[in-house]
Design goal:
The chain is mainly alpha-helical and 220 residues long. The chain has two domains: 9-144, Ribonuclease iii, N-terminal Endonuclease Domain, Chain A (Orthogonal Bundle), CATH 1.10.1520.10; 151-219, 2-Layer Sandwich (Double Stranded RNA Binding Domain). 59% of the residues lie in helices and 11% in strands. It has a three-stranded antiparallel beta sheet. Helix 1 (9-15) packs antiparallel against helix 8 (104-122), helix 3 packs across helix 9 (124-134) and helix 5 (73-82) crosses helix 8.
């Protein structure tokens, strides 16, 4: 757990208050979703500016892929976990019992709320410093491991080059509660299932299925 660049204790409390907490504490009037809304916009702007300056020769499409990899739910949630955000969350008893402190989506939302709180309390430059240390520093690892690649687009291009029909993605299984589902998705080409993928969202599962399909084609 780190010390956040936040002087306003009310903003900090609000950033870590999940809406479920209000059900058991009617004296609390606000949760973190408005801060999350603001933080999402600030995060996107700060990340766009960082990438624009760091990669002056890269085209818009590449920068968009880089940004998506930095601000996606799993990246934010993993960072929030490292920073100890889960331990600071104010949750209802039910939300806590269902694993809310480790919920990927909830942690990512909290990270955005914290960004919004820092922005209101300290301004944009302090937000940038915070993100440089905890988010932007991950870009070299992401690029070196090809974590920014759009595997669905790559698979689409591959099958088209072979004269195959477009990939078809089907949800084969869903598990977990509504707020923390895991999706299993299969990808079929010309009616034949080629690979499967798992993820915390349908999009993530589709990307993983496409990645596994490409790996299978390259190995054949």
């Amino acid at each position: 757990m780190i010390s956040l660049p936040l002087n306003n204790s009310d903003l900090k409390d609000k950033a870590f208050t999940h809406r479920s907490y209000l059900n058991e504490h009617p004296e609390i009037k606000e949760h973190n979703e408005r801060l999350e809304f603001l933080g999402d916009a600030v995060l996107e702007l700060a990340t766009s500016e960082f990438l624009f300056k760091k990669y002056p020769s890269q085209p818009e499409g590449d920068l968009t892929a880089y940004r998506a990899s930095l601000v996606k739910t799993t990246t934010l949630a993993e960072t929030a976990t490292k920073l100890g955000f889960g331990e600071q969350l104010k949750l209802s008893k039910g939300e806590e019992l269902s694993g809310g402190r480790k919920n990927t989506s909830l942690l990512a939302d909290t990270f955005e709320a914290v960004v919004g709180a820092i922005y209101l309390d300290q301004g944009f430059e302090v937000v940038v410093s915070f993100l440089e240390k905890h988010i932007f520093s991950q870009i070299d690892y992401i690029l070196s491991h090809n974590l920014h690649k759009d595997f669905k687009s790559s698979l689409q291009e591959y099958v088209q080059s072979k004269g195959f029909n477009s990939p078809e993605y089907t949800v084969s299984n869903e598990s977990g509660p509504d707020h923390n589902k895991t999706f299993n998705i299969s990808v079929a080409i010309n009616g034949e299932e080629i690979a499967t993928g798992t993820g915390k969202s349908k999009q993530e599962a589709q990307q993983n299925a496409a990645k596994h399909a490409l790996e299978k084609y390259k190995a054949s």
